[in-house]
User: Fold this.
Amino acid sequence: MQARKKTEEKRSKILDTALSLVTKNGLHGISMKMIANEANIAAGTIYVHFTNKEEMLASVYEMITLQINQLVKEHYDENSPFKKNFLNIWNAILKAYLADRRIPDFITQYAFVEGASSGISDMLEPVYQLLEEARRDQVVKDIPIAGLIALTHGPITGLVRMIGVTKGLLKEIDVDMYAQSCWDAISNKED
Assistant:
């Protein structure tokens, strides 16, 4: 039991280190050796957990999507209108991204790597399913799910980046107004 816990801790440390280094150096600017050095582990230890860099990066992405899916579950109330759920989830994701700004940086980089994005819709199935239901019920515009995500997720990551480089911006902005603006971009109905 203790050995298993240590193995999981090492795996988590590798993923966390990779997340930090990707944010700092980009996906193509890191190597397994860099990750090992930064994590203070032997390079071979990484290969006990992952066959290659691509598998390790996919695991980082999976770790992040599990967190996002958990946020969706926690902030979705099937008895509430879709708009209220959307605003709650949007705000929860923004807060999570502000708490760990590495996450939106990694997602932005990883989502556009050729071949890496093939499993993205599978990993974010709860998000895709909610948007698909809203589209089917004509609550949101009839545009591809990827477009709906771009109109709602892109502004979150942009806002996090702006807050990261502009001191005090978070105090100046009305987060609810930004969430409402994203809702207005995809909504099929006037409020």
